[in-house]
Amino acid sequence: MKIKVTLTKSPIGYSQAQHKVLQALGLGKVGSSAIHEDSPGILGMVRKCMHLVTVETLAQ
């Protein structure tokens, strides 16, 4: 299964670790999206910055 992660809030004012997680997810500017495989590593990264992103499940 795949998920679509969209950056909905600016990471300014949050920790450098969260900035790096967003960068690793492929999210730069507010409104940018990335599609990833639903794996434990990706879900952990999303959980780390859940307050900054929205997650949608994509049907295959």
CATH architecture field: 2-Layer Sandwich
CATH superfamily: Ribosomal protein L30/L7
Total separate domains? 1
Mean pLDDT: 95
What is the CATH T-level topology?
Ribosomal Protein L30, Chain: A
Number of strands: 3
Report the sheet with the most strands, covering strand number, pairing sense and barrel closure: 3 strands, antiparallel
Output the radius of gyration: 11 Å
Category by helix and strand content? alpha+beta
- CATH class placement: Alpha Beta
- In percent terms, what proportion of residues is strand? 25-35%
Biggest sheet strand line-up: 2-1-3
Q: What is the distance, rounded to the nearest whole angstrom, between the alpha carbons of the first and last residues?
A: 7 Å
| Share of helical residues | 25-40%
Helix-strand pattern, N to C?
EHEHE
Write structural notes for this entry.
The mean pLDDT is 95. This protein has one domain (2-58): Ribosomal Protein L30, Chain: A (2-Layer Sandwich). The protein has helices at residues 16-25, 40-48; strands spanning 2-7, 33-37, 53-58. By secondary structure, it is an alpha+beta fold. Helix 1 packs across helix 2 (40-48). The longest helix is centred in the middle third of the chain and has 10 residues, at 16-25. The chain has a three-stranded antiparallel sheet, with no helix packed on it. The protein contains two helices and three strands.
Q: What does this entry show, briefly?
A:
The chain is α+β, with helices and mostly antiparallel strands.
